[in-house]
Design a protein that fits this description.
heterodimer, A: alpha/beta, Rossmann fold, 2 domains, 7-stranded mixed β-sheet, 15 helices, B: alpha/beta, 2-enoyl-CoA Hydratase, Chain A, domain 1, 6-stranded mixed β-sheet, 21 helices, 20% strand
């Protein structure tokens, strides 16, 4: 069967890094990702089920892998070669459509008793993601044993499967996994209820986070820094009260909070940037970083109030940031990686995500789909989605010839 | 030879291209045959003995005792003076304020007055820098008073420096500088560049707080000021005059000194800007070509620096002192003598070339909000009788309208542009939804008081200034402006004047009457 596969090759990772720096998504041409013919993955255990993907999304973390920018942190918690693709809606052999919850926790790994995270159904906090009867791999799409969504078929443990309701489109269903990440992040923003929350970035994660914040947290003011026109339009539609370009977010947060502000180089009539707020003395109750870059984290630190919280939803990688404001302003920096059970609502994150996708019509975020063989175009489009007027780009495997032969 | 009055030229085939100011540059435009061009009067002759005229005004005031009779040892004397917004462009040294203040101080010294404060009456404008204060009052006065804390900028946000004087019969609160209100005598030194300036507006606006100003700097008042250059038909002035009465009734004694300037606006080499095009000499034409090319190639910073270093040669045409209203009647007559141009009938399309400067961007950036205010506030209102453009007509403005702001001078303008205008351009909605938050924002207050920032509410006033025009006009088109900035203002961008006239035809039809208002130099259309 056809699959896009990442192989361990240091020269190819190095080449991808160079190509990705020249053109986002460029790593697909020279890097470790190849379109190959492989045997379908064998079931790791008797209860595992085959899933034939219908749509498989391209995520920021996938792009980091393709362009050789993934953090070395992942090295021991992935296994090569792996087929990427963890945002998946597909068909089971009995014809059921299902979305995969990709974290490979204790149940999938045959570990019993489960770790405390999995025992609490909070699978995103599994402590055994490199152990058990599976090769290491934090998620489907990073594990050599399971396959991934960018292929004709993969294997999934029953604990990972969520039946797609009748009437929900594939486009909506493929948005469930990224939406679950956003729900997870939004539910860490309870301190912003009735207050001011700022969201840095309005790609897929930023927009889904906005919808989740509007649905479950209820800030009085919800500000977003969005780079591209269609992102700004969607942010407004999804409930942002103020949408500005990224450079204007500091000023917008200052306005919303009535904060005092400092220019670069300190205040004073002789400072030519006096009146140009660089860091706020007050700020937003919560800032959600949906980008994960040095610049976005630095901006989050500049606009969060003392005692406030930064929730990091975007995958950061290696960044260099001055953490003095974190210390001086006693700011909490909290990660929001995946999903499991949300204690505030006593429900599974994926169930909440299914609800939100339907309510907020998040299928509209799926902008373009590509067949597998056009993976270079797909990855290039995904890497420049904002600039090219898109949000979510996905592989469409519904018409792949191999699919019906399996 | 006496100066020639202003006049209206009808464009024919022999009319040379017409000069349009275009921010920090200028353009020559060919107006359609049959268009009218309103030219300002030439500069009036100036007072020969300026110091003598000033002294005479102080010794022979109107409806007041001579100034020496009002001065006595031990008294508290406050001299307030117009701020950096006047005159435009800043005048060559010595500034007329310096001449007047020095004459007043000579008399005060002779009378044994030693408790003297000088206050730049800037209301909610930005504070003046030391260099600007020195330019206005002269080094001698500055060095004598500033180091001792007796020459300073008015601070409309210092609660300890304000006093509530009372309310008008219409409930308008009057809160002004405590020092001025509690002085034995307040002398106000004015420069009356346009007919809007002076009179009771000097003190009731220049030394007032937001609490007071909001009663007349609002949409309702400004939409009922038709125009605010015509004080008898200006609700803005009626309110200030009511406040003046409150001050008088409360015992605030004001000795008003008003000066008028001629319209000699540009020194060489830019003097061709105030000449009629068919009278340009070879030197003027050469200067136009050379400076146009040089300015086109120069970076913004250089262009701005060139223009903002212009010091106008305009000089004194008259000075009057004494009781506020009596003085202002004389002043207004002199302003009209310099600026009024009779114009018969309104026009369908009015064209303007906006200069690089307005009262609120001296040594600064003419940001898009100031473009709106200058075009729809100041220039549109330079009329008596009826607006030069008919109701439902089109205003075409030539200005680059850059999406650019001076962060020190205009911080709240940036927010106004980003936040308020992205939501609405309706002045009433702007006022209702946003004004209070901006007026009471502590950061803007801090910057106004300690840096050189206009008050947080100031961009609102600029928007209200144009609210009568917004109500009146069918469309506003900006030629050569940054399209995004122009659209944010709610106007239409056009690349050329020809395009703009084509666009205007959607509103006023295919064969509109067109009038170009050839200012600066400043003038005022007396429309019958």
């Amino acid at each position: 069967m056809k699959a896009l596969r990442v192989e361990r090759s240091l020269p190819r990772f190095a080449a991808a890094r160079v190509a990705g720096a020249l053109a986002p998504g460029g790593g697909a041409r020279v890097g470790p990702l190849r379109l190959v013919d492989v045997d379908p993955p064998a079931p790791p255990g008797p209860e595992w089920q085959r899933v034939r993907p219908r749509l498989a999304g391209i995520c920021g973390s996938d792009l980091a892998t393709v362009d050789g920018k993934a953090s070395p942190w992942f090295e021991p918690i992935v296994s090569f070669p792996f087929v990427p693709g963890h945002e998946v809606v597909g068909d089971l052999d009995d014809g059921t459509r299902a979305v995969i919850e990709p974290v490979l926790g204790c149940a999938a790994r045959g570990i019993d008793p489960p770790c405390p995270g999995c025992a609490a159904n909070d699978v995103g906090r599994c402590r055994n993601i490199a152990f058990g009867h599976l090769e290491p791999g934090l998620q489907t799409g990073y594990c050599a044993d399971t396959g991934g969504g960018w292929s004709i078929a993969l294997m999934a443990h029953p604990s990972q499967l969520h039946r797609v309701p009748d009437g929900m489109s594939d486009e909506a269903a493929v948005m469930v996994e990224p939406t679950a990440c956003a729900v997870r992040g939004a539910l860490k923003c309870a301190g912003g209820a009735g207050g001011v929350i700022a969201v840095v970035g309005a790609g897929t994660l930023g927009l889904c986070t906005l919808a989740a914040l509007r649905r479950w947290v209820g800030p009085d003011q919800l500000l977003v820094g969005a780079k591209h026109p269609q992102q700004r339009r969607l942010a407004t539609e999804l409930g942002a009260t103020t949408v500005v370009e990224p450079a204007g977010l500091t000023r917008a947060v200052r306005r919303a909070t009535g904060s005092m502000a400092l220019p670069r180089g300190g205040p004073g009539p002789r400072n030519r940037t006096d009146g140009e707020p660089d860091q706020l003395l007050g700020g937003a109750d919560v800032v959600v970083d949906c980008v994960g870059s040095e610049a976005s984290l630095a901006q989050a630190l500049a606009v969060v109030r003392p005692g406030g919280r930064i929730v990091m939803v975007g995958m950061p990688g290696s960044v260099t940031v001055d953490l003095t404001p974190l210390w001086q302003r006693e700011v909490e920096l909290v990660g929001a990686y995946a999903y499991g059970r949300e204690p505030q609502l006593d429900r599974r994150t994926f169930d909440l995500a299914f609800e939100l996708v339907a309510e907020a019509r998040l299928e509209r975020l799926v902008s373009a789909t590509y067949p597998l063989h056009r993976y270079r175009d797909a990855l290039s489009h995904a890497a420049e989605s904002g600039r090219r007027g898109a949000v979510k780009v996905a592989f469409d495997l519904r018409n792949e010839k191999d699919r019906e032969r399996l | 030879m006496s100066p020639r009055p202003g006049f209206v030229l009808e464009v024919d085939r022999s009319t040379p291209p017409t000069l349009f100011m275009h921010g920090e540059g200028f353009r020559l435009e060919s107006l359609p045959v049959g268009s009218r061009i309103v030219y300002p009067p030439e500069a009036l002759p100036t007072v020969a003995d300026i110091d003598g005229a000033i002294r005479s005004a102080l010794l022979h005031p109107v409806d007041s005792e001579p100034l020496p009779a009002l001065l006595f040892p031990g008294m508290r004397l406050t001299i307030a003076f117009d701020d950096v917004s006047l005159p435009l462009p800043p005048m060559r040294r010595p500034d007329v304020r310096q001449r007047v203040i020095e004459a007043v101080l000579d008399l005060a010294a002779a009378a044994g007055v030693d408790d003297v404060h000088l206050i730049a009456a800037l209301a909610l404008h930005r504070r003046m820098t030391e260099a600007e204060l020195r330019h206005a009052v002269g080094d001698r006065v500055y060095d004598a008073f500033a180091p001792r804390g007796q020459l300073y900028n008015f601070d409309a946000e210092d609660p300890d420096a304000l006093t509530f004087v009372g309310e008008t019969d219409q409930g308008e609160e009057v809160e002004i500088s405590k020092r001025a209100a509690e002085s034995d005598l307040l002398i106000y030194v004015n420069i009356n560049l346009v007919a809007m300036d002076g009179g009771h507006k000097s003190t009731a606006t220049g030394l007032a707080s937001y609490r007071s100003l909001r009663h007349h700097h609002n949409v309702r008042t400004l939409q009922r000021s038709r125009s605010f250059m015509d004080q008898h038909r200006s609700e803005l002035h009626s309110s200030n005059w009511r406040m003046g009465k409150v001050l008088r009734d409360a015992g605030v004694k004001i000795f008003q000194i008003e000066t008028t300037l001629n319209n000699d606006t540009f020194p060489p080499p830019f003097d061709f800007l105030q000449k009629r095009e068919w009278e340009w000499s070879a030197r003027h034409r050469a200067t136009f070509v050379a400076s146009s090319k040089a300015l086109d190639r120069a970076p913004n910073r250089v262009r701005r620096s060139v223009f903002h270093s212009v010091r106008a040669p305009h000089d004194l045409t008259g000075v009057a002192a004494g009781e506020v209203e009596a003085v202002h009647r004389l002043t207004t007559a002199r302003v009209y003598e310099q600026q009024l141009v009779p114009v018969e009938g309104q026009t369908d399309v009015l064209t303007l070339g906006l200069p690089y400067i307005c009262p609120y961007n001296v040594n600064s950036v003419m940001n898009p909000i100031l473009v709106m205010s200058t075009a729809l506030g100041y220039f549109f209102n330079l009329y008596r009788g009826r607006p030069l453009v008919r109701e439902g007509g089109v205003l075409i403005v030539s200005h680059p309208t850059p999406w650019e702001f001076h962060p020190v001078h205009h911080p709240s303008y940036i927010d106004f542009f980003e936040q308020v205008l992205s939501e609405t351009t309706d002045p009433l909605e702007v006022e209702k939804t946003y004004e209070q938050a901006y007026a009471e924002d502590e950061w803007y207050r801090h910057l106004y008081r300690t840096s050189y920032a206009y008050h947080g509410v100031h961009p609102f006033y600029m928007w209200y200034w144009g609210s009568h025009a917004l109500q009146h006009l069918g469309a506003v088109i900006v030629v050569g402006g940054d399209a995004r900035a122009v659209r944010r203002l709610g106007f239409k961008p056009a690349s050329t004047l020809r395009d703009a006239l084509e666009m205007a035809s959607d509103v006023v039809g295919r064969d509109p009457s067109i009038t170009h208002f050839h200012a600066p130099p400043l003038m005022m259309a007396d429309v019958t």
